[in-house]
TrEMBL record:
InterPro entries: CutC-like (IPR005627), CutC-like_dom_sf (IPR036822). Homotetramer. The keyword Cytoplasm applies. GO terms for cellular component: cytoplasm; nucleus. Keywords: Copper, Cytoplasm, Metal-binding, Nucleus. Belongs to the CutC family. May play a role in copper homeostasis. Can bind one Cu(1+) per subunit. This is Copper homeostasis protein cutC homolog. GO terms for molecular function: copper ion binding. It is found in: Cytoplasm; Nucleus.
Amino acid sequence: PPPGLLQVVKQCVRVPVFVMIRPRGGDFLYSDREVEVMKADIRLAKLHGADGLVFGALTEDGRIDTELCTALLAVCRPLPVTFHRAFDMVHDPLVALETLISLGFERVLTSGCDSSALEGLSLIKRLTEQTVPSALCVTSGSFSPGGGITERNLQRILEGSTASEFHCSARSVRDSGMKFRNPNVAMGASFSAPEYSIKVADVAKVRTLNAIAKNIL
């Protein structure tokens, strides 16, 4: 997020706010210039009150980029750091997990290397079990299942994975307030969200998800 969004969010909420550092969409193989941007974004996020940072970086052969991650972690400290769903694109998730623990990441966000957390549930469970002995002596590492989590499947995912945290967008679509609309112009690619609908965090969904989780955890 831009610094302005972070500042306003920090004024409005009391929960810890972790900021994602991602200079572009696409893969997680970054150029030297993109790394400069990531470092600058980390410094700005810390300056404007971020409580933690979130990033991920891979090598061309699908492994954790330990050199880059080490450099970015150094800029992030002393704040806690989460490795995001770049993890779902690794060549060997079990090896990648051990690498992340050794580097000092406190949390990993994953859908179990599948299209959704429900489909990747068996791997999430294996990964969660794998973190226990290492986390006790190296980090406070935890797994946050993420990807396709809704009110309908959250209970199954938490019970099936033994994870203690989860991640989801909990969004709904709100119609634009624009009365004049030009149907002939699109401001983005064909697969972008329509100009006259807005995706927003749905308070009712968040409360329902929280209630489900508190009943399980």
